[in-house]
Request: fold
Amino acid sequence: MLPKPPFAWDLSLADELVAFERLKPRLVDVWDRLMSHGEEAYSSVVVPSLTLDQEELRKLDGASFYEERLLFLLIRLRNPRAQMVYVTSQPVHPLILEYYLQLLVGVPASHARTRLTMLCAYDASPRSLTEKILERPRLVERIRWAIRDPSSAYLTVFNATPLERKLAVLLGIPLNGADPALSHLGTKTGSRRIFREAGVDFPAGFEDLRDEQDTVDGILRLKSERPSLRCAVVKLNESFSGEGNALVRMPEEVNRAAVGKALEGMEFVAATENRETFFAKFERMGGIVEEFIEAKEKLSPSAQLRTDPHGGVLPISTHDQILGGESGQVFLGCRFPASEDYRMQIQDAGMKVGEVLARNGVISRFGVDFLTWRNGPNEPWRVTAIEINLRMGGTTHPFLALRFLTGGQLDSGTGQFLNVSGRPKFYRATDNLRSQRYKGLLPEDLIDILTYNKLHYSDRTESGVLFHLIGAISEFGKLGLTAIANSPEESESLYNKVLEVLDTETDYRKGGSNG
Reply:
């Protein structure tokens, strides 16, 4: 029988903050071990919790299965001395785990499996995983017991909040993520302040808005600064994937009454949103108003970076984001790398943002979303920063997949990813491949389809498809994938082939490879 949880469970907030600060210096040693490129022993505890605003999170179908996205971190088990503890809300299907472990080139899957401890809360409720763990003191103890050497261990999370801080203290290991006290730097308001300090371009607008009247004031001021403005965008401070945005069309005669009336016709990105619910959230979390940039050509690239415990800033990747939905603002997927027309511009701007974040004490992965636009093919692309995501995002796990499979690294001088022989690699990825016809497919069915149609990743060609969100396919008809190839054209062709195969295999009138 497990003993009762330790007395530390009842720490006051003041004592928790003191304990958290004491753990921080340990992250420097762990970081140095990770970056040594040797085979130093360490333990990684992965809690892939989407600890986000719960009302916003409920808009995401199959949210708990997004915990599977960080299974790409199993790459760390390539080090034969590394150990990992991975925690989820519900059990991960054994076939899904086997699917990833068999891709660990150079390490027997059986050896990696002995160094991996899978734990779960057995709780499918629509809440954050960290919250579920903290409700289960004995689960916390099981995680503690699974850590072989706490002095060389660290906690990896999707995003860091006071809940993740508390969990780190209870486990007695440092948090590999932004201090929750700095989370405001990653809000829409905080992003604008950081951009201003970093000296990077960002849209005209106003931050620190608290309610509907502030929003009206902001639109009026914005219109006075931009007389030609036809549309403004209102954003909730803590929304994600564009789901907390709303467009406001400018009335012909701009005054307080007319703008107030225009708010009645706000165009919400989230189909479930309305004016009353939107401004209820706005009063709770605040937000911003910005100009809506209009141009003949608009693209939405992003740069991913991280700040390290020594205060350094490291570029990780750039992507062209694929946006959709009725508003064209919902994140659907990405292409890597971003276009060479502006790739280095956004990487350099991201580095400037990272330097400001590092000065503020941020130690974390982060992403910066940009807008690039022009009004003709002969014009240069203009680049403006839109927001900071002070967490892992929708472009984190595809890049982890690329590293997982090829063992290569980013060439910061070109923004390209090179495999071990120096060859550039490319991919097209999505979190949102879905169809009603996919519902009812079991993980076993998906693996069969991949095998019969030869879509698996090949070490010989370093091309193929890696799937994620596999656990969500049966209930939600939803799946994620990363199509890796040796050129942008090949990765696009491979992505489209997957769609064709899945459509054929789920057309039960014709029968598929099992039919």
